[in-house]
Amino acid sequence: MEALLLALLMLFSLSISNTSLAKNLVSKTQSLKSGDTLVSKGGIFEMGFFSPTNSLNSYIGIWYRQDPKKTVVWVASRDHPLTNTSSAALKITLEGQLALVADNQSVWHAKSSRSVQNPVAELLNSGNFVVREADDESPENFLWQSFDYPTDHYLPGMKIGWNFQTGHEVFITSWKSQDDPASGQYTFHLDPTGYPQVVIKKGPTKIYASGPWTNLSSIQSGGKDSILPYWLVRNKREVYMTYGLSKAISSLRFVLTSNGLVKGFVWEDQTKEWDSFSTASLDNCDAYGVCGGNGFCNVDGFPTCGCLEKFVPNNNASENLSSLGCHRRKPLSCLVGPSSDGFQIYSGIKLPDTNNSWFNESVINLQECEQICLRNCSCTAYSILSKRNGGIGCLIWFGDLIGIRSVSPNQQDMYIYIRLASSEVTTGPNHSSSMGRKTKIIVLCLLLPVVIVLLGVLLSWYFCRNKKTEQRLEEELELPMFDWSTMIRATNNFSNKIGQGGFGVVYKGVLDGGEEIAVKRLSKNSVQGLREFKNEVSCIAKLQHRNLVKLLGCCISGEEKMLIYEYMPNKSLDFFIFDQTRKKLLDWSKRFNIINGIARGLLYLHQDSRLRIIHRDLKASNVLLDTDLNPKISDFGLARSIVGNATGDNTKRVAGTHGYMSPEYAGHGIFSVKSDVFSFGISVLEIVSGRRNNEFINEDQYVTLPEHAWKLYREGKSIELADEHIAGSYDVVQVLRSIHIGLLCVQQSPDDRPDMSSVVQMLVNDFALPRAKEPGFFFGKEYPSDTHSKSSQNEVTITTLSPR
Q1: What pLDDT was estimated at residue 16?
Q2: Any idea of the CA torsion for 269, 270, 271, 275, to the nearest 10 degrees?
Q3: Pick from 464, 492, 544, 614: CA 20 to 30 A from residue 440's CA?
Q4: Would you give the DSSP letter of residue 69?
Q5: Shortest CA distance to 228 belongs to which of 278, 172, 161, 153?
């Protein structure tokens, strides 16, 4: 935000109608009419009708009450002005909706999230105008609030960002001009793509990007002495930035002006005026992409645009580089090992646009961050996020670096490590300790004998204690065993982390013969234990099918327990299908092949394998993709084998992932092959739509993907469910049939659902399908809205993947 607090604000004066009555609430019996005002309880804000200078139009707005100029911070009907306010009123309708009515016509309305018996509208002392139940003042129960629909002002306590559950974005839109509050062409956003950053757009075009949130300084300290204590909140449900006030400031506001500048103002009680402030002035280098990819902008230099050190201009550009950009003087090798690329440290620069970036806050040191970048040929740079929670975090960029410019030392204390050919690196990250070499040697010599003796004693006790347990487990598992030293060597001492779940961490490894493997290592702190470990081995050890991940062996050494699988280079299905960029790689033919593969894998488990196995946790993150994007079902930690001709069982230990569990299993612990069929149906609908199973909402209640698909199916509009990214590449009949099959699989009653044998036949043949019945009830209101991101304590799914 350092470069967002910019130039002069165009002040405007407003003519406010004479106040004849100050109201506290708007209700079904009390409206706000021309000449009335609504005053917040603390008296800071006031609301009523106003007309901008040089304008004949009128609007409903909120302004600071103590400000003689009546600076408006929010406008209700900005794009629907009134020319006559004699009959206008802001009221709560009989239907319980907040509306601005004139001449018996609705000019503007605020659609509440739900209906209540006695709704009222109130202006809070924060400047937030809210609709709530009359006897319920808790913020989490607001039916509607103006802070979710701001105009040109960013006020303390307002959240700018995204709600991932509803898909609603809160952003700022400028006035059209200083005398016209209609929506202007400039907007101010928090962009969550990659690592969060602030962006300003002119229409659809990005004109400014702040770089990562860690790049915001000057006002970023967020401490008690900061002029602007701020917070960035980011979780699976939402991401937003907000700020508060320090004790020394009574009022503060930010405004996006009609010419696209952001300006901050502090209220001065003595002068009764707003004093402007900013941390930096906007200059030519703040324009987005002004020097192109890998270009460097120096506002004090001539020419302004140049290349980063060890980079050269594209297309033999002249000295005035403009937006042509630069490329590396020597190409990257993308090799791993002694001939790998290196990194050049750059400081005193603004970090690049994070639109094409990836981050991991659990990384604990620079070496780990560097290795993550080196293992991915597309990674071009990395930086730390912050020093907290015992680690540094890791932020890496892919492709060209956009928006690098010079900054003064007090504006930027971050470093960036840019990837270069090894021969080009002149300086590198300094990972060495501050302890001197001689000191280290002395300490090592003193401690080494003691350490050796202690280790000998401990190891003798340890191996004697666990030897019988290891021998017993090896006999029970009947699976090739790998020793501890082989795993250390294969995984380079467990340095190549590729995933993490309830079971523990998954690492990529390479055996001595060159075979790539995935090593699933049981965490000592995991809620999973020996039972889940043995269960996964016993279920999958002797299963062989092209659509099941292959278990190669295991490793047991003391308390260390590992499973060794074939390596899947394309990670899991959810890595593609729910990512707006990567899902484009899955055209309809690939998606249909994945659906067929999952179906055949389940059919093998249910019918054709030596044991009848119920997976109990089938979902996109448990479907891995091989080199050719063929699916392989994985993660059998919760699977159960059924004896004889039985097709199901029941349990008091319900385990799995909410939203994918069938109603009878989630509600009563009854599981069967039809439970897996239900999970398969959810997965089919996700693959076709490219959306998670609980991504949808409507005005009254939480609505899941099956319910949404069911509604479209009943209306004869099922094709609307198809992902827009497969438009033009799909067979309409095939897509509609897949949706129909998915709905058949998620029906309420297990008896109505087809078995996997029938599903496979439905997918490959064109015979008429039975009409689908309503999906299972165990959706929506039965779970909180973030259930897709939470699972039971026994979930062992690998869901956090690191790029390679």
Answers
A1: 40
A2: -50
A3: 492
A4: T
A5: 278
What does the H/E/C string look like for 602-670? HHHHHHHCCCEEECCCCCHHHEEECCCCCEEECCCCCCEEECCCCCEEECCCCCCCCCCCCHHHHHHCE
* Whether the Cβ atoms of residue 281 and residue 2 lie closer than 8 Å to each other: no
In terms of pLDDT, which residue wins out, 803 or 711? 711
- What SS3 state is found at 760? helix
The C-alpha angle with vertex 554 and arms to 549 and 557, in degrees rounded to 5, equals 155
617 catalytic per annotation: yes
Q: Residue 350 has which token pair?
A: 């603004």
Give me the CATH number covering residue 100.
2.90.10.10
Q: Are residues 585 and 723 in the same domain?
A: yes
pLDDT of residue 654: 64
Is 461 a residue whose pLDDT tops 80?
A: no
Catalytic residue among 152, 400, 574, 617: 617
689 - beta bridge partners? none
Give per-residue pLDDT as tens, 307-346. 888 898 887 755 556 668 899 999 998 887 777 899 998 8
SS3 assignment, position 162: strand
The reply to whether 557 and 593 lie within a common domain is no
The DSSP secondary-structure symbol of 715 reads T
Domain-ending residue, one of 278, 309, 328: 278
For residue 236, is pLDDT > 90?
no
Opening angle at CA 354, ends 349 and 358, nearest 5: 120
Give CA–CA dist 173/80, Å, rounded: 15
pLDDT in tens, 86-128: 889 999 888 788 999 998 888 998 888 788 888 999 999 999 9
The tokens describing 236, both together, are 């699976």
What tens digit of pLDDT does each residue of 742-757 get?
999 999 999 999 999 9
User: If you average pLDDT over every residue of the chain, what do you get?
Assistant: 79
Question: Are 510 and 517 within 8 A, CB to CB?
Answer: yes
